Amino acid sequence: MSAINREQVAHLAELAHIEMTEEELARVAGELDLIVSSVASVSQAAGPDVPATSHPLPLQNVFREDVVGETLTQEEALSNAPDSQDGKFRVPAILDGE
Amino acid sequence: MSERIVELSAADLAAKLASGDVSSVDAVNAHFEQIDATEGQAVDSADPHKGTDGLNAFLHRNREEALQVAQDVDQARANGEQLHELAGVPIAVKDLIVTKGQPTTAASRMLEGWMSPYDGTVTKKLRAAKMPILGKTNLDEFAMGSSTEHSAYGPTRNPWDLNRIPGGSGGGSAAAVSAFQAPLALGTDTGGSIRQPAAVTGTVGVKPTYGSVSRYGVIAMASSLDQVGPCSRTVLDSALLHEVVAGHDPQDSTSLNDPVGSFAAAARQGAEDGGLKGLRVGVVKQLTGDGFQTGVQQRFNEAVELLQSAGAEVVEVETPNFEYALGAYYLIMSSEVSSNLAKYDGVRFGLRVVPEGNPTIERVMGASRAAGFGDEVKRRIILGTYALSAGYYDAYYGSAQQVRTLVQRDFNAAFEKVDVLISPTAPTTAFKIGGVDESADPMQMYLNDIATIPTNLAGIPAISLPGGLAPEDGLPVGIQFMAPAREDARVYRAGAGLERLLNEKWGGPVWSSRGDVATTVRDFAAGAALGGK
């Protein structure tokens, strides 16, 4: 695997919606490079015949009864909102230039 | 000489509450006195992010409500009502578990001031048992860390040495129990966050079988690994608390629909004469030797000898794929972290930072997450985003899931030969606060979890209990037992059996040789005020 560079981290930070300073991008690139090279052996551990495990215990198709349980009131749901108006979450512009 | 209330085990306190020797109000007050005497003062009264000059185990103290619950318990007892065995026994709750009426921060600036509009299932179970909740305990931000240094509200200090870490992520819960601030606490364990803090603070901690305790209302870190569990000073106490919080919950789709086991009965059985006779114990070869501190290895070897002398059959077992476990864990965990933490975007709750000008929501999200998350959280989100991104998914996330299968197979093969496995819980005793330079080598901190991670990958239960003090530094060493999935009772039987042997060997519990924590805190704060460390 090639070394992780600043541009890659900048792209990942954009995907993850985390603004990063130049200093952070450089630092995280170095750290990530160290971590990724330390865990690289993982990709050599198992042959193609080994199935993947995504969940430690096999549980399948878990559904609950289709009945209304406890729900939040509108007031409770909005109680931690950074901004709200008319019983709704209020957010800044979705698109550039309004 | 009367025994101090705060030094009683939860089981002994429960007996005194039932007999009327102690009231629940007295118990709650005694624990708050201890909290007040050991938490220290804010380093900077204007900035809560700098922590305190004491233990700093609590992020929130719930005095009023705890006393109200205690009063209700005392009244109900006076009326002759039938109560839960642990009714009136106070408990601390890791601040990753949501509690209505108290703040929940996950030790992050992102959730500063956030008040959960609902209770987690385990919180509801504590309330149903009428256990007064003393408050919310400190942790590494969003449970990411092995030292509690990543809390946005200052580090928690280890009651054995205030310059040292109490482990993590659940360092607050472990320190609180160790320092007699609470007889019981709840923690969460994704890669060792209950067990490693227990090891370095001389306490007991259990990671139950994955899915046996509800995760509803527990702030998610890595959903296929996270599990809630008990912290205490005795094995029996963890068993009693485990029984309170376990059970099927339709609100958690990963919850097992099994009857709750008799963990306390198993612990009592293990501590009886001959309780360990015939128990087949496997020493995990891959979790000994190189990388383990000399004193840790020494206390571990002595524990194994004690088990043998008590009639346990000890063999060595091989788990060759454990060498890949740490790497696989960091890929799986960070991948799930990057997904689970996407919801902190400043829209519906949590911190919102609006940059200058007329920013779009995307820029608001980027600025909010930049300001709300600490370095370790960002590092893991970026790593997870990388591991899940196109072109790397198969090599990293896919391979890590295959390793998970290999680790499970190693455990399955081992458990065909033995009933329980044993290892040291952590490779070293508590290290100094600031002693690991994570920017120089982030993997060094991650190595603390080398012995605890395999059980999370496999979903199996494990306990850590004190194995004595390392001779070279006088700090606690943890011993870990692991058992097959759904066989949590075995770790209680083995743990209580070894606990009894060790108490006989050392002439009492590990903390009986420690100085008074309140005095230590007072001296430490005075030293800090004089400009020393």
UniProtKB/TrEMBL annotation, chain A:
Source organism, top-level taxon: Bacteria
Reactions mediated catalytically: L-aspartyl-tRNA(Asn) + L-glutamine + ATP + H2O = L-asparaginyl-tRNA(Asn) + L-glutamate + ADP + phosphate + 2 H(+); L-glutamyl-tRNA(Gln) + L-glutamine + ATP + H2O = L-glutaminyl-tRNA(Gln) + L-glutamate + ADP + phosphate + H(+)
Signal peptide feature range: none
InterPro entries in the cross-refs: Asp/Glu-ADT_sf_sub_c (IPR036113), GatC (IPR003837)
EC number in record: 6.3.5.-
Regions of compositional bias (Polar residues) in chain numbering: 74-83
Region (Disordered): 74-98
SUPFAM superfamilies given in the database record: Glu-tRNAGln amidotransferase C subunit
Pfam family for this entry, one: GatC
Keywords: ATP-binding, Ligase, Nucleotide-binding, Protein biosynthesis
HAMAP family found in the cross-reference section: GatC
Oligomeric and partner information: Heterotrimer of A, B and C subunits.
Assigned protein family: Belongs to the GatC family.
Described purpose of this protein according to its UniProt entry: Allows the formation of correctly charged Asn-tRNA(Asn) or Gln-tRNA(Gln) through the transamidation of misacylated Asp-tRNA(Asn) or Glu-tRNA(Gln) in organisms which lack either or both of asparaginyl-tRNA or glutaminyl-tRNA synthetases. The reaction takes place in the presence of glutamine and ATP through an activated phospho-Asp-tRNA(Asn) or phospho-Glu-tRNA(Gln).
Protein name per the record: Aspartyl/glutamyl-tRNA(Asn/Gln) amidotransferase subunit C
Gene that specifies this protein: gatC
UniProtKB/TrEMBL annotation, chain B:
Active site: residue positions: K94, S169, S193
Record keywords: ATP-binding, Ligase, Nucleotide-binding, Protein biosynthesis
Segments forming domain Amidase: 54-491
Gene3D superfamilies: Amidase signature (AS) domain
Entry-linked SUPFAM superfamilies: Amidase signature (AS) enzymes (SSF75304)
EC number(s) stated in the UniProt entry for this protein: 6.3.5.7
Catalytic activity entry: L-glutamyl-tRNA(Gln) + L-glutamine + ATP + H2O = L-glutaminyl-tRNA(Gln) + L-glutamate + ADP + phosphate + H(+)
PROSITE patterns per UniProt: AMIDASES (PS00571)
Pfam families linked: Amidase
The protein's enzyme class: ligase
Assembly notes: Heterotrimer of A, B and C subunits.
Known function: Allows the formation of correctly charged Gln-tRNA(Gln) through the transamidation of misacylated Glu-tRNA(Gln) in organisms which lack glutaminyl-tRNA synthetase. The reaction takes place in the presence of glutamine and ATP through an activated gamma-phospho-Glu-tRNA(Gln).
Family affiliation: Belongs to the amidase family. GatA subfamily.
Protein name in UniProt: Glutamyl-tRNA(Gln) amidotransferase subunit A
